[in-house]
Amino acid sequence: MITQSIEYLRNSEDWLKTVLIGGVLSLLSALVIPTFLVVGYLLRVLRATMRGDEEPPVFDDWGDLAIDGLKGFVIGFVYFLIPGIVVAVAVFLGVAGAIAGGGSDAAGIFGSLVALVGALVGFVLTIFAAYITPAALSNYAETDRLGAAFSYSDLRPVLFSGKYATAWLYAFAVIVVSGIVSGLLGATGVGAILSAFITFYALVAAYYIVGTAWGDIHHVEMRGDDSPDEQAAV
């Protein structure tokens, strides 16, 4: 599956154009809207692969792409919000405890323990968020209902299935390897730019894996048009 995911984008004659656009948008992610466009494209990858379409999507219908990506971004933000809050609260309590103790050794140890426990809990919650978010995005991509991304009754069977767990591990491995390569390249100016394109390529490969697994689990049927707006109107 990893080999197929890496070759996925190259199933299109315009794959270089897609990677170029995706990489440039990734470089401009600080401007926020480009991030929505990349997320929107990844949602298109999920829709295509879960329906067995081996032809990669393209960057077009930019308005719909941005709106769809915004919804996907909100889904990810919500799931990662709780881990972020836990870590922030732990750090705050640790610092506040140390200050309240007047800088004593006991207060410093207490503050460090609180921060450490909070960081560990936050780490576990972050892993869970990273595990559930692709499934949540997939359920949204299939149904085009934002609420479906937060429907535990829909997500639970998938999250506890061996097929999804295996696919997630494969996808995670692809992203980790790309992160290592990007980190090594980031030591140079040119390498830092190339890393954006590598990261985009890896994300597409990872979501190909997730989308394919989701389609196998849910037996999603091929549709003639995957446009969210048009599907919602049907």
Structural class: mainly alpha
Low-confidence segments, ≥5 residues, pLDDT <50? 223-234
Largest beta-sheet characterization: none
**Order of SSEs:** HHHHHHHHH
Task: Tell the overall outline.
Answer: globular
Total of helices? 9
Could you report the average pLDDT, rounded to the nearest whole number? Answer: 87
Helix content: over 70%
The fraction of residues assigned to DSSP E strands is: under 5%
Counted beta strands: 0
Oligomer type: single chain
CA-atom Rg in angstroms: 20 Å
Distance between the termini: 34 Å
Structural domain count? 1
Report on this model:
There is one protein chain. The model is unreliable at 223-234 (pLDDT under 50). The chain is built from 9 helices and no strands. It has one domain. The protein has 234 residues and is an all-alpha fold. The chain crosses the membrane at residues 20-43, 77-100, 106-132, 167-187, 193-214. Pfam families: DUF4013. It comes from Halogranum gelatinilyticum. This is DUF4013 domain-containing protein.
Secondary structure blueprint with pairings:
Blueprint lengths: L1 H6 L7 H13 L5 H18 L11 H39 L4 H39 L8 H8 L2 H24 L3 H30 L9 H6 L1
Helix pairs in contact: 2-8, 3-4, 3-5, 3-8, 4-5, 5-6, 7-8
Sum this structure up briefly:
Keywords: Membrane, Transmembrane, Transmembrane helix. The protein has 234 residues and is an all-alpha fold.
Task: Looking at this protein, list some descriptive labels.
mainly alpha; 9 helices; 234 residues
